[in-house]
């Protein structure tokens, strides 16, 4: 590289470091402002007319609350799902803790979650909500009255109690009896029955059900990865929690709602876990999905890194409800509350694997999504043999590079031939320095004469882009990588931060990736195309920015392929040198030859065939 190029590279590096340091400082300032922000107190008069209940440490009011006529003592009831699967492997044990307040699921505890060894207790979903999953809503009100347990067993519990508009609700929660035990511990059947003991008829579309709250687990988890989504008529849609935050010309939003027709499922989720509610019967007409933000404080990987983030709570309208005395309105749902593991969700069924939202990526999502699914499948298959996910990622990377080997070898030959054209290219530049149009025309003639494609050297890199982004999306939500270690990396789903210098994280694998990529670019045969040279020069910095604070598994994949490419380039350099042979020009036919061809075609013969001579007629004889 020349002096100007080195200056640009150094400035880009300084800019990258400065940007990351500034972002870190801004995040700390924002967290301090949130902690020091004074709480707004309600007057007793306001509290009476607008009673609200908020999550611990939350400043947002998810909904108004129906005040019970008398104080009801809260009671909890536990059901532990511990179904095993496989010959020597057991599924994660899940504890469902139910409450009589609202007659629903207070929280879900994952007893064997890998994150438990780093915390004081089990991982919990719906931890920051004061509402039970399964609690009914009416408009902006949510029930908080006491329910009675009318039946309970090892795998089910049934509540009964008064609810809105004088109706009585019966709610039954039961572990799913799945034909496939894969993921069975994360599944619950939810049955809700509404009846009217008094007189009159209830007709309303204002009744709904709360189906849970979930948000980032740690401070470093991107808020944009939490949100809500749905599947309707085979089409998915995802909305990030960042949409609740206002912009330059808009205020923060207290809720986002969507009207859905016959939804297959609705969901709230964070990066690795999801609450997926699938209506199976009873839902009539359009259903309204409402998502609300919940302010929560989560801890970081480093002490003192706690910050306030947005969790998301979900409410699903029950459509048109018509209840008369002596009749019932029954609803049935299935709730999946577990990790976003693509292979497991695929076996669970109900198209729940689409909650991974692999195709929800701007521009190239539809291209990257098939690679995400294929790479996830391959990683799981290899992991069953190699045991370690780090080894599985390395193996699948090597398989990809072996498949691409012929293409890479052809690219290397093209670049060698391009480098041999350098002297002739320089002559053209000097000769036509004052005529760029003529220079380009002569350059293309040179490429054509020697049968060289200037884009041939970039082709393998372009073909790897969909694979890279497929890996990127797949690893972004791969719950199975959480707390899976490899070499010095404690968690392949997070950056491999060894230490901090002035608040800046030192992530080794992305730096190693950039170094190996730079070496690869240096030893690759140089092309005569300036545009290609500039692309190759800046690629290491582009990939460093993409991978630096991303899952270390992605940097492991790209570092492995860089090392493989270095070896491949070294091997190619030891092969016999390619010859630069000028392609023979096709001779253009002259005007006379063209006329001859036209005449031959009109007589139905080829040019080389002689025209048929007329037969000699025999002389006539008299007689």
> How many separate helices?
13
Arithmetic mean of pLDDT: 75
Main sheet: strands, sense, barrel: 9 strands, antiparallel
Radius of gyration (CA) equals 34 Å
- Total individual domains: 2
In which range does the helix fraction lie?
Answer: 25-40%
Overall morphology: elongated
- How much of the residues is beta strand, in percent? 15-25%
Strand order of the largest sheet: 8-9-10-11-22-18-17-14-15
Number of strands: 24
**The CATH topology of the largest domain:** Beta-galactosidase, Chain A, domain 5
Unreliable stretches:
30-70, 85-89
Q: From the helix content, strand content and strand pairing, which structural class follows?
A: alpha+beta
CATH class of the largest domain: Mainly Beta
Question: What is the oligomer described by this structure?
Answer: single chain
Distance between the termini: 103 Å
* CATH architectural type of the largest domain: Distorted Sandwich
Features:
elongated; 623 residues; 24% strand; chaperone; alpha+beta; seven-stranded mixed beta sheet
Fold and architecture overview:
- Strand 17 and strand 18 form a beta hairpin.
- It contains 13 helices and 24 strands.
- Helix 1 (3-36) runs parallel beside helix 11, helix 7 (422-431) packs antiparallel against helix 8 and helix 10 packs antiparallel against helix 11 (530-547).
- The chain has helices at residues 3-36, 44-49, 342-348, 365-386, 389-403, 405-420, 422-431, 436-449, 459-476, 508-523, 530-547, 552-573, 591-602; strands spanning 64-65, 76-81, 94-99, 104-110, 123-125, 136-138, 141-142, 148-152, 156-162, 168-175, 187-195, 202-204, 207-214, 227-232, 235-240, 256-261, 265-269, 273-281, 286-298, 307-317, 321-323, 328-339, 497-501, 504-507.
- The model is unreliable at 30-70 and 85-89 (pLDDT under 50).
- The chain has two domains: 59-355, Beta-galactosidase, Chain A, domain 5; 377-573, no CATH class.
- It is elongated, with a radius of gyration of 34 Å.
- The longest helix has 34 residues, at 3-36.
- Strands 8-9-10-11-22-18-17-14-15 form a nine-stranded antiparallel beta sheet, with no helix packed on it. A seven-stranded mixed beta sheet has the order 1-7-6-13-20-19-16.
- It has 623 residues and is α+β, with helices and mostly antiparallel strands.
């Amino acid at each position: 590289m020349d002096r100007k190029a080195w200056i640009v590279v150094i400035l880009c590096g300084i800019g990258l470091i400065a940007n990351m340091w500034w972002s870190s400082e801004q995040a700390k300032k924002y967290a301090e402002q949130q902690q020091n922000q004074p709480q707004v107190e309600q007057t007793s008069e306001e509290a009476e007319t607008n009673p609200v209940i908020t999550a611990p440490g939350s400043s947002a009011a998810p909904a108004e609350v129906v005040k019970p006529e008398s104080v009801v003592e809260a009671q909890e009831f536990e059901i532990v799902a511990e179904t095993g699967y496989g010959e020597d492997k057991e599924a994660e044990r899940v504890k469902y803790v139910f409450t009589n307040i609202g007659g629903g699921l207070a929280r879900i505890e994952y007893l064997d979650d890998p994150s438990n060894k780093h915390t004081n207790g089990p991982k919990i979903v719906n931890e920051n909500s004061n509402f039970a999953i399964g609690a009914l809503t009416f408009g902006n009100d949510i029930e908080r009255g006491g329910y009675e347990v009318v039946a309970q067993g090892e795998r089910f519990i049934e509540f009964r109690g008064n609810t809105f508009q004088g109706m009585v609700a019966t709610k039954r929660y039961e572990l799913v009896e799945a034909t496939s035990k894969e993921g069975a511990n994360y599944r619950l059947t939810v049955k809700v029955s509404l009846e009217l003991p008094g007189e009159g008829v209830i007709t309303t579309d204002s009744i709904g059900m709360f189906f849970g709250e979930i948000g980032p687990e740690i401070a470093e988890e991107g808020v944009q990865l939490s949100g809500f989504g749905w599947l309707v008529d085979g089409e998915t849609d995802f909305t990030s929690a960042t949409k609740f935050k206002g912009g330059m010309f808009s205020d923060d939003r207290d809720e986002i709602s969507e009207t859905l027709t016959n939804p297959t499922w609705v969901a709230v989720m964070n990066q690795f876990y999801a609450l997926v509610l699938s209506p199976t019967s009873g839902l009539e007409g359009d259903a309204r999905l409402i998502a609300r933000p919940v302010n929560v404080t989560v801890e970081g990987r480093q002490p003192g890194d706690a910050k306030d983030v947005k969790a998301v709570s979900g409410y699903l309208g029950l459509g048109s409800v018509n209840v008369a005395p002596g009749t019932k309105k029954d609803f049935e749902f299935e709730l999946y509350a577990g990790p976003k593991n693509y292979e497991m969700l695929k076996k669970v069924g109900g198209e729940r694997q689409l909650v991974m939202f692999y195709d929800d990526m701007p521009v190239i999502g539809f291209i990257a999504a098939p690679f995400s699914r294929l790479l996830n499948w391959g990683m799981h298959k290899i992991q069953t043999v190699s045991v370690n996910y780090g080894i599985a990622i390395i193996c699948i990377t090597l398989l990809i590079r072996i498949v691409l080997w012929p293409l890479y070898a052809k690219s290397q030959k093209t670049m060698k031939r391009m480098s041999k054209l350098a002297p002739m290219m320089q002559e053209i530049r000097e000769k036509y320095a004052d005529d760029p149009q003529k220079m380009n025309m002569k350059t293309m003639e040179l490429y054509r004469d020697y049968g060289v494609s200037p884009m041939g050297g970039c082709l393998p890199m372009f073909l790897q882009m969909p694979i890279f982004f497929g890996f990127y999306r797949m690893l972004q939500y791969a719950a199975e990588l959480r707390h899976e270690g490899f070499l010095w990396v404690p968690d392949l789903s997070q950056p491999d931060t060894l230490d901090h210098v002035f608040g800046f994280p030192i992530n080794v694998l992305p730096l190693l990736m950039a170094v190996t990529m730079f070496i690869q670019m240096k030893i690759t045969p140089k092309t005569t195309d300036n545009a290609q040279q500039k692309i190759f020069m800046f690629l290491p910095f582009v990939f460093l920015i993409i991978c630096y604070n991303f899952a270390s598994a992605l940097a492991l994949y790209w570092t492995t392929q860089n090392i493989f490419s270095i070896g491949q380039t070294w091997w190619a350099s030891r092969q016999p040198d390619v010859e630069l042979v000028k392609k023979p020009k096709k001779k253009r036919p002259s005007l006379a030859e063209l006329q001859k061809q036209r005449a031959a075609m009109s007589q139905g013969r080829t040019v080389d065939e002689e025209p048929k001579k007329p037969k000699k007629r025999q002389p006539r004889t008299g007689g």
